[in-house]
Amino acid sequence: MVLDKLKDAVRKFLTGSNVYEKAVNDFLNDLTIELIRSDVNVKVVANLTERIRNRLTNEKPPSMIERKEWFISIVYDELVKLFGGDKEPDVFPSKFPYIILLVGVQGSGKTTTAGKLALFYKEKGYKVALVGADVYRPAALDQLTQLGQQIKVPVYGEPGNQDAVKIAKNGIEKFLKEGYQIVIIDTAGRHGYGEEQKLLEEMKNIYETIKPDEVMLVIDASIGQKAYALAQQFHQVSPIGSIIVTKLDGTAKGGGALSAVVATGATIKFIGTGEKLEDFEVFNPKRFISRILGMGDIETILEKIKSVQEYEEIQKKVEDALTGKGKLTLRDIYKQIITVRKMGPLRKVLQLVPGFSMLTIPDEQLKLSEEKMNKWLHIMDSMTYKELDDPSVIDRSRIRRIAYGAGVSPEDVKELLQYYDVLNKTLKNLRRRKDLGKLLFKQ
Ligand SMILES: Nc1nc2c(ncn2[C@@H]2O[C@H](COP(=O)(O)OP(=O)(O)O)[C@@H](O)[C@H]2O)c(=O)[nH]1
Ligand SMILES: [Mg+2]
After folding, report:
1. Deepest in the core among 73, 164, 264, 308, taking most CB within 10 A?
2. Ligand nearest to the CA of 190
3. Cβ(103)–Cβ(199) under 8 Å?
4. 349 CA from centroid of ligand 2 (Å)
5. Quick one: fold of 297-441?
């Protein structure tokens, strides 16, 4: 699979005992080697590692995040950019009926992809049909027909007819009459790379007569960065075009193919990752890179960074409350508890908060805090937004309702409200004093 050694490099980096600077250098070396092995353009790789190094020098890790984790998050970020950035392509038809024309050189995987696409849309609930317009290879129609049978999608073809455009037209007409929503046309394509120009001319021909809603160019990932020239020409002649990169499972060069296509500005909509019809997915750069770097590790790190950012936001609110600029609502407290929980066991979290490491909190008390946090979350879940924002409206009957909804006693609800009152009063008294930790986590 593409870039499959990066996962090991990430593991090695995160768990290794090398000093940070050396670990970073080793990782960047591994990254360079792996990207070049994957046929990503050498200049592109050099730029990438330089950008990563620059960010390491110019940016600071968020507080409470280990440097190593921060480094990996930067690598993730830059790789995502290289492979298309934030956007997940829109793969759903903008209108009905929707005609898709598949083009690409022979052997790139068009016919297989026609089947995969048909299955993809069928599973999403669309009424899909296939048209076989490859007139050069007699077996092509059989291949498509078999795929169609497998997924129970009708296939139109005219064995013996040499006029691909005519077949396509007939097929579309028939299926539109029958109420099909998406019609996918499989074409012949040219023999090999080097014949791209002819391929594009041919495509233009069919395209002008058939007027499909979308043309999808199928590119075999094993051509690596050569995909750049092809995708660029295609992108220029076909404003309604998108790209499918196939065989990412069978080649080391897939990284090169993907990054090259992205660099042309063309949209990669799908990727093929195997011979089976299910081996097909919408191309999402973030998901793709997470998988390559090791889903578990990456998600944990990104989640943690997000939690810290949220935590800092709340800290700021607390500071504002302390300096008299704002007031804490129950909603803030709710958010804070959720955030703290996401960050791990309370003791560990507290150790990270400046000032807290000095505090020694007995174990039973910590355990109590965890239980109490749970209870309070349930209670706040049973409150309305109005109640969360302004607890003063909570009277006895509301307390009963909330307690009932949360499965706790009214005393528990009262305790939370008291805590809230005390907190805000104390905040008022303590303005400018910064030992908020004690306040927020005391029993
Ligand atoms: N490993 C792998 N093989 C693929 C993939 N897509 C297509 N193939 C294989 O590539 C070969 C050519 O595919 P085909 O659909 O006939 O290409 P066409 O000539 O463009 O229509 C077939 O053996 C397919 O099974 C893929 O994503 N992964
Ligand atoms: Mg074919």
Report:
1. 164
2. 1
3. yes
4. 57
5. 434 Repressor (Amino-terminal Domain) (1.10.260)
User: How far apart are alpha carbons 175 and 34 in whole angstroms?
Assistant: 47
Q: Across 276-324, where does the E strand assignment appear?
A: 280-282
| Nearest partner of 207 among 185, 224, 226, 228, judged by Cα | 185
Question: One fold for both 6-82 and 297-441?
Answer: no
Q: Does domain 6-82 have CATH number 1.20.120.140?
A: yes
In ligand 1, which atom is closest to the CA atom of 246?
27
Q: Is the alpha carbon torsion for 228, 230, 233, 237 positive or negative?
A: negative
Higher per-residue pLDDT: 314 or 16:
16
* Model confidence pLDDT, tens digit, residues 98-137: 999 999 888 999 999 999 999 999 999 999 999 999 888 8
Question: Which of 190, 203, 423, 222 is closest to 328 using CA atoms?
Answer: 423
Ligand minimally distant from the alpha carbon of residue 147: 1
pTM confidence score: 0.76
Q: Does domain 98-284 have CATH number 3.30.310.50?
A: no
Q: Is the dihedral of CA 274, 1, 77, 264 positive or negative?
A: negative
Alpha helix locations (H) across 130-270?
A: 138-151, 164-177, 196-210, 227-237, 254-264
* Domain ranges (residues) in the chain: 6-82, 98-284, 297-441
Integer distance in angstroms from the first to the last C-alpha of the chain? Answer: 53
In sequence order, what are the beta bridge partners of 271? 245, 281
Question: If you measure from the C-alpha of residue 133 to the centroid of ligand 2, how many angstroms do you get, rounded to a whole number?
Answer: 9
Closest CA to 282 of 151, 77, 421, 124: 124
Question: How far apart (Å, rounded) are the C-alpha atoms in residues 83 and 285?
Answer: 6
Pocket (CB within 6 angstroms of ligand 1)? 104, 106-112, 189, 246-247, 249-250, 272-275, 279
> Which atom of ligand 1 is the closest one to the Cα of 280?
27
Q: Please say if the pLDDT value at position 53 is more than 80.
A: yes
- The DSSP bridge partners found for residue 102 are 186, 216
Mean pLDDT lowest for which of 42-46, 301-305, 309-313? 309-313
C-alpha of 161 from chain center: 45
- The predicted-structure confidence for 265-304, as pLDDT tens digits, reads as follows 999 999 999 999 999 999 999 999 999 999 888 888 888 8
Nearest atom (ligand 1) to Cα of 114:
15
Ligand 2 centroid distance, CA of 103 (Å)? 9
DSSP, res 368: H
C-alpha to C-alpha distance for 190 and 105, rounded to whole angstroms: 5
Residue 366, Cβ density class (10 Å: 0-12 exposed, 13-18 middle, ≥19 buried): middle
